Amino acid sequence: QVQLVESGGGLVQAGGSLRLSCAASGRTFSSYAMGWFRQAPGKEREFVAAISWSGSSLYYVDSVKGRFTISRDNAKNTVYLQMNSLKPEDTAVYYCAAGYGMSTSRYEYHSWGQGTQVTVAS
User: Residue 3: CB partners within 8 Å, gap ≥ 6?
Assistant: First the structure.
């Protein structure tokens, strides 16, 4: 298993930027693909982006393509989500998750962080 801790959330104006971090700790860090999900009040948790631990494979939901970038720094055991051109509809609690393969389904990830709030004001 792996322990995940998100950070970097906050309040930004529409059009602004924010970078989320997900710090991982565990025995087999290189085995895990990582995903970012988000959940707004009253809505289902939705997929945002995923990356293989090596960083060689990336995938994004269409709504964030061109605005968000997922990346990793294996030396720091950390995955990032750079969010640019933020919109009010991006407002949600953002969660990072670890799994054994990249997936858009939250059910395919075995470890989750507690989430970090991102609020985008218009």
Answer: 24, 25, 26, 111
Percent of the chain predicted with pLDDT > 70: 97
Task: For residue 79, give the nearest of 15, 2, 17 by alpha carbon.
Answer: 2
Cα 55-119-20 angle, rounded to 5 deg: 20
pLDDT reported for residue 29: 64
pLDDT digits (tens, 9 = 90+) for 18-30: 999 999 987 666 6
Q: Which tokens in the block code for residue 59?
A: 């995938």
Amino acid residing at 96: C
Q: Are 113 and 97 in contact (CB under 8 A)?
A: yes
Pairwise CA distance, residues 76 & 46, whole Å: 26
